[in-house]
Amino acid sequence: MRLLLVSDTHLPARARALPSQVWDEAEAADVVVHAGDWVDVALLDELEERSKRLIGVYGNNDGPALRARLPEIARADLDGVRLAVIHETGAKQGREQRCDAQFPDTDVLVFGHSHIPWDTTTPAGLRLLNPGSPTDRRRQPYCTYQTASISHGRLTDVELRQLPLRG
């Protein structure tokens, strides 16, 4: 099972559209995970249409139309991997302990908000993934997203993908 992980797309405020590389990944993925801050409901509509399966949550910049269609926390069992998605996990300091306490029955937690890519495993074994942003790099050197695979009940091949700088 092939996954695409994105967050903080902020369309159309930060970009007019998702980069074509991200659309190619979305169409190739078995599951697209979006960790919030869509901003425009049109992206949700298009991702639903172009994805085989979409798991998403709303973020702090998402208004009533997105909040009506998306949960704050999404959970799914993907071939034996217990996945949760949330937009914000709080400050970097203490993140692992907070997430272990809040998501005890989860194998992988995808989150966003900071626009800073993140890939760690907590003391309890919870994998924390933040794909960064494909449209708003803020102080990061590149816009980013992540891809991963699930095989035989295990998350594998997690890769941070960098997008070319727009200029």
TrEMBL record:
Keyword entries, A-Z: Metal-binding
InterPro entries from the UniProt entry: Calcineurin-like_PHP_lpxH, Metallo-depent_PP-like, Phosphodiesterase_MJ0936/Vps29
Ranges where the Calcineurin-like phosphoesterase domain occurs: 1-150
A Pfam family this chain is assigned to: Metallophos_2
Domain of life: Bacteria
Cofactor or coenzyme needed: a divalent metal cation
An example Gene Ontology molecular-function term: hydrolase activity
Keyword Metal-binding attached: yes
Known EC number: 3.1.4.-
Enzyme kind, highest EC tier: hydrolase
Family to which this protein belongs: Belongs to the metallophosphoesterase superfamily. YfcE family.
Name assigned to this protein: Phosphoesterase
Species name: Amycolatopsis balhimycina DSM 5908
